[in-house]
Design a protein that fits this description.
The chain is an all-alpha fold. 78% of the residues lie in helices and 0% in strands. The chain has helices spanning 2-18, 23-55, 69-96, 99-131, 139-160, 164-178, 181-191, 211-243, 248-257. α3 packs antiparallel against α4 (99-131), α5 (139-160) runs antiparallel to α6 and α5 (139-160) packs antiparallel against α7 (181-191). The longest helix has 33 residues, at 23-55. It is globular and about 65 Å long.
């Protein structure tokens, strides 16, 4: 009897979790979360910029110019992380045919492309005084450029297919195949002889930077993380309204707004 009760309890927990995968249930929750994440974005952003540009010491070798890393490194990390999360959501949508998962992947793609674009440009601004050139066909720079093209390809592919379900499936396949590029970006400085410096922060060894520099970078990472969540929730709410326009709950919502 206890086994039956345990099974029923476990099954009810799964039902409770799955209810959030419904667009109609997720839509109002996302609306409540957006202001929270925007607030966290502002808090972490102000604190991170203050520590990065006014508290962290001047680098002994690179001088003041090194401070670009407080934006460059976080957006580079986020460009890779967002792609993996996007591919995961797309894969879940492909396997389980869940509508919200595919919408989440579609919502994340432009944000990831923006992060990859910022990574390349801030890297160029850092590279000009340090390397004497805006761009080199370095392994990490080239693989990061490929990541930007993968984001743009995902966006273009979905936009080119009228049927949303077919677009989701095609985009998911591209996202999953393209995920192999992320470890190439991360390990490129170890696998090949590149101009790009190695990681200053690692999980396996002590950080090769002053503690205030590390705090500034981590605060900026949290800022961009909160920004990503806030914008992705805004975008997915828009996608839900577009795709569920035929649903009764969306019609009722529009009537209430009018």
């Amino acid at each position: 009897m206890s086994k039956v009760n345990n099974f029923s309890t476990t099954n009810s927990h799964w039902i409770n979790w799955f209810k959030w995968s419904s667009p109609s249930t997720f839509y109002p929750v996302a609306g409540k979360l957006i202001p929270i994440f925007w607030g966290l974005t502002a808090i972490f952003g102000i604190a991170g910029l203050w520590v990065s540009f006014f508290v962290a010491p001047v680098d002994a070798v690179q001088g003041q110019g090194y401070r670009i890393i407080f934006v460059h490194v976080p957006v580079s990390w986020m460009s890779m992380l967002i792609y993996l999360v996007m591919a995961a959501w797309a894969g879940i949508g492909l396997i389980f045919n869940t509508r919200l998962s595919s919408m989440m992947a579609q919502a994340l793609a432009p944000i990831g492309a923006w992060m990859a674009f910022l990574s390349l440009w801030t890297g160029a601004f850092w590279g000009k005084p340090m390397w004497g050139t805006w761009w080199v066909w370095d392994a990490r720079l080239t693989s990061e450029l490929i990541l930007l093209f993968l984001y743009l390809g995902f966006i273009a592919l979905q936009a080119s297919i009228e049927n949303p379900r077919r677009a989701d499936k095609a985009g998911a396949i591209l996202a999953l195949v393209g995920a192999v590029n992320v470890p190439i970006i991360y390990f490129s400085v170890k696998w090949w002889n590149t101009l790009h410096q190695g990681a200053s922060v690692s999980l396996t060894k002590a950080p090769a930077m002053a503690q205030t520099m590390l705090w500034g970078m981590l605060l900026m990472v949290l800022c961009f993380w909160m920004y990503t969540i806030a914008v992705s929730l805004m975008r997915v709410r828009t996608l839900i309204l577009e795709r569920e326009a035929h649903s009764d709950w969306v019609r009722q919502l529009n009537e209430v707004k009018q």
